[in-house]
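Budget justification, computational time. The allocation requested in the original proposal was used primarily to generate structure tokens for proteins on the priority list. As evidence of use, we reproduce two of the resulting records. The first is shown immediately below.
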Amino acid sequence: MKRSSKRDGAISIGGSDLKDVIDGARRSFLMKAGLGLGVGAVAAADVLGITPANATIGQPGQVGRNAPNLGTKGTGVYPARAKRVIYIHMLGANSTVDLWDNKPTLWKLNGQPMPQSELGTQKLSSMSSGQTAFLCAAPMAPMHQYGQSGVWVSDLLPHMSGIVDDLCFIRSMYTVQLNHDPAGVLMHTGFQLPGRPSDGAWISYALGNDNTNLPSFIVMTSGVGQGVPLDTADWSAGFLPSEFQGAELRSGVDPVLYLNNLGGVTSQERRKLLDSLSDMAKADYRSSQDPDIFSRIRQYEMAYRMQHSVPEIVDFSDEPKSVMDMYGPDVIQPGTFARNCLIARRLSERGVKFITLYAMGWDHHFQLTTLLPARCKEFDQPAAALIRDLKQRGMLEDTLVVCGSEFGRTPFAQGSIAGAWGRDHHGGNYTWWMAGGGTRAGYTHGETDDFSYNVVGKPTTTYDLNATMLRLLGIDHERLTYLYLGRNYRLTDQFGDVVNEVIDSSGSSLS
């Protein structure tokens, strides 16, 4: 990690280069001066997204007639390798040592104490720090090598084993956070306490939206919580304008709460109400100069358009049976990971920039031998199908899929190795995988020790992961900043380096 203060060839002012400052001043001038009469009013209305065309509804599955919001960075600083992100968070922390990181030493020493020389290198969770014995626990299922890349995969993931040559693994992730909430918030926002913008909010702010009928940032959840907090801070806009926060798409008859009209209110009546609110907002802005006024109006307008676009997204009647079968039997059940994966592909086709899928239920302190196979069965086929589906449609090239947890799990057993044993939280190392979007397929980055307890090569932080994700989208993580309370903030806070090794140097950038 490094603390960055300047960049070669750029003039930096508090973390933003001079061009960013000039562009920001121009936007500020248009917002403040443009709500009067004449050409300035038209320009400001266009910048703020309140032109009459913004209220129109395009045909289902198509971009509306209004010009899309290009965001503050347009297409970014660098040539983009990805247009969109599907971010899979295995909430609760999956066990790397049981799924991806084969260690013969653990098979050999199964049931024997971990060497003290190993244990002394890591901070233990309070849930296992009082144990009198830390017994090595071998993976609960055999592992085999697959593909030309020879990646080790557990027998619990037979479908994932068939796509390993499309994946890029980072084995050397680590974190200092050992509790779910701060580790998850750190992962998504760059800071361990709530209040800052999330990854999807930053990307929506930077790159805008390609479809005016859907939010640029959508969140879906599946599985059981097990008491692990699902913190809305993970998809919050923080101090960015509120329109950039994630929109939660739920299962059930109302995928988005409060979207439908109240009883007795027609669509035409709601349209008139929104037009009146827009007029009031313009008048209020003249006196208050509060930009959040227009953020709220844009959200009202988006909700109006989503009355037509959301039902089409969750209607699978146009999906071939072969595609439905590929995602597995759970795809027909609302709220399942399989269904959410298919919805994510449909959202990606329609220009949604950032989609977060929370696959919950991976917190296995006990009963690992029954809970882990169940979670793998829910996860394995849909996750592999998502990669295959994107690839067969020619979308994997410009869709970045990332998948992992907030931390890992210990190679030793929590409690006794007999009976309903499990594994505790572990931040010393864990595995993430990426696919598409300019990543290096079939490559494994980093290395762990013989116990899968410490990183011994190419350590990688969540800051580095986020910096790399932004780079693949064409964004310099050091230049994507927002001035708040006198300081320029960014997703990678004051740290982070792009992991260039995971980027495919042979591929072409998007035009």
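The second record produced under the same allocation is shown here.
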Amino acid sequence: MIKKDEPNRGQESGQESTAPPESPSRPVEPAADAAPQRLDSPRRPEGPVSAPSNRADDEDRFDLGALEGMTMADLLGPAPGRGSRDQGRGSAPAAAPATSRSVDEFDFDEEAFLAALDEQDFVGTTGEVVTGSVVGIESDGVYVDIGGKAPGFMPKKEAALGVITNLKERFPRGTQVEVLVTREQNADGMVTVSARALALRQSWDKVRVLEKEGKVVQVKVNGFNRGGVTCDLEGLRGFIPRSQLQEGENHESLIGRTIGVTFLEVNPETRKLVLSEKKAATAARFSELEVGQLVEGVVASVKPYGFFVDLGGVSGLLHQSSITRGQMRELREVFDQGDRVRALITDLDPGRGRIALNTALLEGQPGELLIARDSVMAEAAERAVRARSLLRQQEQQAG
């Protein structure tokens, strides 16, 4: 047993003490000034010993002094693409990486860049209208250069609205044509184009404008069936039902005749173009009429509330409240069916096809029509002048 006041013999010989450490979890470290174990020592130390240091040999071999203070990142060098952003942070300089260039250092021509983009643009989106020149003709169609990597092909049946018998005469090489792209590029970069489809689109656009403006157009009847007759309008096939013809009972006789029509239905999606001769006659007649105008017609029918007067293609209503300012026992006391009537127009509604008539304004005194109808009708033109002045005053007071 070693006494507490007696020095450890192992320490005198440079050996570590074999006494257990004060704490089992804390290993005993060798003394800082302990000398390395001699190889010829008669005893082998029982405890761990420090490994012999080869630092002097490593320093001579690798010049470790130059690496002192460097981190692992300094030894590995910058990551690819990072450049030298991490230098100057207190670390030792690493080996110079390969020279890299930033975007700003490259020559950049914006016009050349945009031109390159244009070359990559796809030419010929379905529904696009393009202009090109004829570069080739085959028996089944025409090749049109529209600026793509391959010319567009226009089948013979798509070359026009009508029938073309000779493509070479209709489309000489170099002819400029405007076409509609109907099918996008195939594997060879070729698109399908159509002059006929473009003409049809333009025709529907024109017809829509005519319908919106309420125009009366002239068409030539070129066919008939049990339900009506057909015609051509702006290259489109139109149909006029028998009920919309002035001579619907004998519609076969209209073949080859030109008649005025207006629009009942315009639908490009369903390709329905329905026309009306009767509506056209009404529209044409309405265009000749105005409020305050004196018109003449024949009583077509008598109703409990007034008379319907045929004005030549259109009918006007002479309401019982506008016949006379006097007291009537019944309508037929003034006019009857078949009588000729002269009256003033007091209201027009072309959209609904209504015309309001008035004979009371032609009277000099209330009830004059009841006792002197013929005189009032004979002097209607002179009386209408005074009546129009009265109408204008009423309009100003109402406005």
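A brief technical remark on that second record: The longest strand covers residues 129-138.
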